[in-house]
Specification:
alpha/beta; 7-stranded parallel sheet; 4-stranded mixed sheet; 15% strand; binds NADPH dihydro-nicotinamide-adenine-dinucleotide phosphate; binds magnesium ion
Length: 388
């Protein structure tokens, strides 16, 4: 029996993970949800507790914790609160895999706790690697933790790399759908609404990553994620727009051969692979119908239109604490955009102005990372309130 902890079980990746668990159990693969967590969604977490009967559930917001505790659920389990709750379960020996489906900086400490306790991690929370890739990489080298990607591009790369020595890899090609604004001009981008930005053509995801996909910051984050997951120079990582989202990424080798991993755009496939890795287990998820595909097309990303991708490349080259600023300023700006306080093109503007104010720390430790994260958010919120 594989026992798992699903952190962020009420989110898009979390719900898909529980769907994968249902599918695996249906197909006779023994996986059991031992722990689940949410930020504040008491309603859904309660239903998940009744269905999956975990040993404990962790809820982050204090008032939601109080509400959950006051409910009389049929399944009696421990109810824990916040990061302390995560720390409390992290060193228990009754589970072996953590699914980190938390969003943003909130995923960092659970990633670190999991590594400290030698748990394997199926990582959706790419922000952990963006802000603390070097630190996490160093911790992993000394630990028995396996870090497996859930992100579809990185799952594709992992699959393409099977059996291939790293020194034969000449290029990783990360594909990107291009988001809802692929064909928009910069002038049109100036007035796009939140509803338009949330209307992703191929993927149904949480709000934050949907906006990151519309600005292409998501792809910038994924370059950093690839660097740390596969220990590769970033100049070997290329981004290619592929609007159909059928090829999830590709690897080019020294003999000119290219491997691509394909599938319908459905996160359940990479989630299941991360849970069963290195095994493949039967699923009933939809298949690609090649006969009905009209074409698979590719184009270069437009860096002038999608300035967030340009900023991400600059940050990758500078390294140090710049990625922390990039991530935090982005989280703050995306929150402001979702709350209709700033415009779409203000997102890169506020990120750039925060990066400009920052003095690089070339080797930030965890404490520095937490400080710089909170400093960067403040810069964006202050600058936005002045300009409002
Ligand atoms: P969602 O916003 O849908 O879900 C986030 C989950 O984390 C929810 O369970 C939420 O709880 C919980 N949460 C939010 N904030 C906090 C906090 N401060 N402390 C503790 N828990 C919190 O996000 P997604 O599922 O879309 O994304 C999760 C991660 O996976 C992100 O890093 C994203 O980049 C990555 N990813 C997502 C993909 C997708 O298809 N969605 C694809 C590839 C990567 P509550 O419901 O109570 O608010
Ligand atoms: Mg992705």
């Amino acid at each position: 029996m594989k026992n798992i902890a699903v952190l962020g079980s009420t989110g898009s990746i979390g719900k898909n993970t529980l769907e994968v668990v249902r599918n695996l159990n249906w197909n006779g693969y023994p996986v059991n949800v031992k722990y689940i967590s949410a930020n504040s969604n008491v309603e859904l977490l309660s239903r998940q507790i009744e269905e999956f009967k975990p040993g404990a559930a962790v809820i982050f917001k204090q008032e939601s914790f109080d509400e959950l505790k006051s409910r009389s659920l049929k399944h009696k389990c421990e109810i824990l609160c916040g990061q302390e709750g995560i720390n409390e379960i992290a060193n228990r020996d009754d589970f072996e895999l953590v699914i980190n489906a938390l969003v943003g900086f909130s995923g960092l400490m659970p990633t670190i706790e999991a590594i400290k306790n030698g748990k394997d991690i199926a990582l959706a929370n790419k922000e952990s690697l963006v802000v603390a890739g070097e630190l996490i990489y160093a911790m992993l080298e000394k630990s028995k933790t396996k870090l497996l990607p859930i992100d579809s591009e990185h799952s594709a790369i992992l699959q393409c790399l099977l059996g291939e020595p790293l020194n034969t890899v000449t290029k990783l090609i990360l594909t990107a759908s291009g988001g809802p604004f692929r064909d928009f001009s910069k002038e049109q981008l100036d007035s796009v609404s939140v509803a338009q930005a949330l209307n992703h053509p191929n993927w149904k995801m949480g709000n934050k990553i949907t906006i990151d996909s519309a600005t292409l910051m998501n792809k910038g984050f994924e370059i950093i994620e690839a660097k740390w997951l596969f220990n590769l120079e970033v100049d070997k990582v290329e981004v290619l727009i592929h609007p159909q989202s059928i090829i999830h990424s590709m690897v080019e080798f020294s003999d000119g051969s290219v491997k691509a991993q394909m599938g319908v755009p459905d996160m359940k496939v990479p989630i299941q692979y991360a849970i069963t890795y290195p095994e493949r287990v039967r699923s009933d998820f939809p298949r690609v119908d090649f006969k009905s595909l009209k074409n698979l097309s590719f184009e270069q990303p437009d860096f002038d239109k999608f300035e967030c991708l340009k900023l991400a490349y600059q940050v990758i080259n500078s390294g140090g604490s710049y990625p922390v600023v990039l991530n935090a300023a982005n989280e703050a700006a995306v929150e402001l955009f979702l709350n209709k306080k700033i415009k779409f093109l203000d997102i890169p503007y506020f990120i750039k102005s925060t990066l400009d104010k920052h003095t690089n720390n070339t080797k930030p430790d965890l404490e520095n990372i937490i400080e710089i994260d909170s400093w960067s958010r403040k810069q964006v919120f202050n600058a936005a309130s002045v300009s409002a």
